[in-house]
Design brief:
9 helices; mainly alpha; two-stranded antiparallel ribbon; about 200 residues; single chain; Helicase, Ruva Protein, domain 3
């Protein structure tokens, strides 16, 4: 895990006392088994905080699952994948994200959401400053891919769960398997309680 943390936080890897830079862009996509944890170790909060989002994919619908069965799995589809962007285009888009305008009232709204997670009696660990910065950039990115050069309140609301829920830790972790996590339910609840700027 320390090697993964080094790669994610520093963009470097260490091999036999040599430090090597990772190529840009560098990204990590990880899976998490929601049921069995045998042979795995939970990631520490500092490592979870370095992931942009936590997304739940769930099962495919019956039509897509039937197509998958008929095709014999995903391997054949993977063999025919074509790139839609090269590395330089990805870097250019990453640079462009920073130019997306965020109105001051929306910065305040985003920060209100973040600060509530830090000062709530139900929360053991709130969103870090790194998490707030990531949330801000993710909202800019969503605006950009939506064809806008400005963030709207819906961007902030839409990304709150995916970007923040794995960055907080609730004091009471009870919840039935298969349901949303206590953190996801908490984020959904505070979004209904905080007034949206007009």
């Amino acid at each position: 895990q320390s090697a993964l943390l080094e790669a994610m936080s520093e963009g470097m890897i260490s091999i036999e006392k040599r430090r090597l830079p990772l190529p840009e862009p560098f990204l990590v996509i990880a899976t998490q088994n929601p049921v069995e944890h045998v042979g795995t170790f939970p990631l520490p909060e500092s490592q979870l905080d370095r992931f942009l989002m936590k997304l739940t994919i769930g099962y495919p619908n019956s039509i897509d699952e039937k197509k998958l069965l008929r095709a014999g799995g995903a391997q054949e589809a993977l063999e025919h994948l074509e790139p839609v962007l090269d590395a330089q285009e990805v870097e250019d888009l990453q640079q462009h994200v920073g130019t997306i305008h965020v109105n001051e009232s929306l910065v305040d709204y985003l920060m209100h959401i973040v600060h509530i997670t830090r000062n709530h009696p139900e929360v053991a660990l709130g969103v870090s400053t790194r998490g707030a910065l990531t949330y801000f950039k993710a909202c800019q990115a969503l605006a950009m891919v939506s064809g806008r050069d400005f963030v709207i309140p819906e961007d902030i609301k839409r990304l709150a769960g995916p970007v923040l829920s794995h960055r907080i830790l609730m004091k009471d972790r009870r919840g039935l398997r298969g349901e949303s996590t206590p953190e996801q339910r908490y984020i959904a609840r505070i979004l209904t309680e905080i007034p949206v700027p007009r």
